[in-house]
Amino acid sequence: MNFRTTLIIIVLLVGIAGAYFLFFQRSPEDTATSEKPRIHKVYGITREQVQQVEIMFADAAYQNLKFAKDTMGNWQLKSPFQAEADSEKVNQMLDDILNKRVKQTFEVPELTQYGLDTPSITLSLWTEQGSPGVTTFLIGKKAINFSVYVKEKSEAHIFLIESSALDDLTKSPTDLRDQSVMKFNTETVSHIELASRDAEKASELSSVHCEKRNGIWFVTHPIETKADSQEIEGLLSELRALQVSTFEADQADASTPARLEKSGLDSPRIQIKLIDGSNTYALDIGSEGLAENGTQRSVYVKSVHQQAIYTVRDAMYTRLNKSVFDLRDKRIIDFQRTDTIRIEIAQNKQITVCTKNYDNNTWELQIPTGRGGVTESVRADAKAVDDLLFGVDSLEAAAFVEDPVLNLASYGLDPPSIKVTFTQRGEETPAILIIGNDTTDGTFYVKAEQSDQVARVERTLIDKIALGAAWLRDKQVLNFHIDDAVRLTLLHGEESLTCQRLGTNWRLTAPVKEEANNAEVNAIIYELDDLMAAAYVQNEPALTDAITGFRTPQIQITVELRNQKVYTVQVGNPVEASGHFYARLQHEPNLIFLLNAELVPKLKTTLALLRTPGSR
Fold first, then answer.
1. Which 3 state secondary structure label does DSSP give 578?
2. Do 320 and 202 share a structural domain?
3. Number of C-beta neighbours around residue 127 at 10 A
4. Number of domains composing the chain
């Protein structure tokens, strides 16, 4: 081989190596970023401008896709079937492809070796829907260095972009469609219809209709009553948040008898219909099934307005299976508790009256003195009054008695066993709750006096109301100033002691007459002034003298005041296994309260302790 031949061979090898490096080995980093413009810059098309997208695949395993924006700018899937697309995902796909950098541009004599004669993906973008002007990108084979060959259909040259474009565009309809089962505005829904099928009587459907009037929800069928707004809003929120677990069928396939029978949608367990402005949405709920993993349970649903069958979490069946009781307002009585100025509880010919004193914003009870119907005001327990007002205001039915109620007496409501009247500031007509008989399941029959509807409620609040003054009165048993006490009489066991105040000092007057131990007498006076009931209890027939011990009390203390008021506290027997003693005020024999056991010894003393050291 001569020198000339050798030189020619060397030149050819260098040329081949250079071409190989140019087209196949050049790294994206070999060119400055400023020399690698993005696709949207090169072709002057941004994601916001795109109005229609079409993706076609050479591989028959993938379905061709077509998307178009609606008048609101949301993406809709148009092919292979019509459905709402996930606009965020479609926009992300467009961002991914339009932001790819053009690594290298070059002319080629023919397209076959680059896979561009039969491209694997053809992406067409329209900036105006239906416009003949379209930008179409043909995506061919992969090159080395993580690149892929691309050609804009109308141009002669080809270029390289990142091969991740193949993953960005290789999508199924499921990947890009909206996962929401129903898309509506919860604030503007005006009508709801629910029909549910009885589990035992599959042929029978019970329906509930609700309507929004002036911002307030009402049940309109099968009864006319106010609805439970929170329950309605919760139902709408559940529907709006409902997400597809799997897409089962669309369009014609979703309406075949075999498909409907398999999914239990030939006779849906629940049917839901919503009206949102001019739009109507409908959803049928069918039978249960297994998710693709074979473990998580699901339920078949059909979007009637979209003609599509999905599966969703099976918990949705329970959450959406609402009866008229679930959706109706279950509050018994409607009044403004913060404006209430007077409460009256009438039962068994006894009336407990509690009034609000606006001078100091406290509540006072009117308590009988036992002197010819005369009453006196005592401080009410602020917490107990608040609990009563809040409890009645939020009192809800555990069940309603079927309409119409023709005989109130059969429920103990004519006359009622308890009648609670709430007078409100600025309102002429008070709100009245009437309470009747209890039932075998532990509930009570009640109704608002102005309503015809009888309901059953849990007994916890009713039992407290039945205590009347025993519940509402302040737990401080006596309310006096210690300097007003002028006489003290104490009886316990064999001790019978009487002390009289003379000026600022105390004097024993029985069983002896001499100066008393001021500190010892004052200690008992202080205990009486601070005496707190652990709780008040109702004086029922079961609480006999043998149980309470009031016939022969363990301790009886009488304190007389300057204003001639006299209070006598009687302490009876211990309450078995409770750490309390029965106690009462003698002038209120029916108002029994419990004293903590540790207080009882502090109310006792002896003659020896009451005598001064010099007189013992």
1. coil
2. yes
3. 16
4. 4
- The reply to whether 454 and 346 lie within a common domain is yes
Q: CA-to-CA distance for 67 and 83, rounded, in angstroms? A: 10
Q: Residue 168: CB partners within 8 Å, gap ≥ 6? A: 93, 96, 97
What tokens does 460 get? 């916890």
Tokens of 235: 């139902």
Both 299 and 253 in a single domain?
yes
518 and 447 in one domain?
no
* Distance between start and end Cα atoms, the chain: 148
Instruction: Report yes or no on 8 lying in a domain.
Output: no
DSSP string, 249-309: EEGGGGG-HHHHHHTT-SS-SEEEEEEETTEEEEEEEEEEEE-TTSSSEEEEEEETTTTEE
Looking at the fold, whether 321 and 356 belong to one and the same domain comes out as: no
Measuring CA to CA, how many Å separate 571 from each of 17, 35, 590, 609? Answer: 113, 100, 14, 21
Task: Tell me the three state secondary structure of residue 49.
Answer: helix
Confidence tier at 122 by pLDDT (50, 70, 90): very high
Residues 447 and 520 in one domain: no
Residue 332 or 291, more confident: 332
- Comparing 552 with 130, the larger pLDDT belongs to 552
Claim to verify: residue 364 and residue 313 sit in the same structural domain: no
CB atoms within 10 A of CB 423: 19
Q: Determine, yes or no, domain membership for 373.
A: yes
Burial of 576 from C-beta contacts in 10 A (0-12 / 13-18 / 19+):
exposed
Q: Is 182 within a domain?
A: no
pLDDT in tens, 455-511: 999 999 999 999 888 899 889 988 889 999 999 999 998 899 999 999 999 999 999
pLDDT category of residue 291 using cuts at 50, 70 and 90? low
**In this model, does residue 22 exceed pLDDT 50?**
no
Q: Using DSSP, state whether 34 is helix, strand or coil.
A: helix
Best CA proximity match to 408, nearest among 461, 367, 354, 447:
447
DSSP character at residue 21 = I
List, in order, residues 6 or more apart from 359 with CB less than 8 Å away.
Answer: none
Other Cβ atoms within 10 Å of 309 Cβ, number: 24
Same domain, 212 and 172: no
Q: 198 lies in which domain range?
A: 189-327
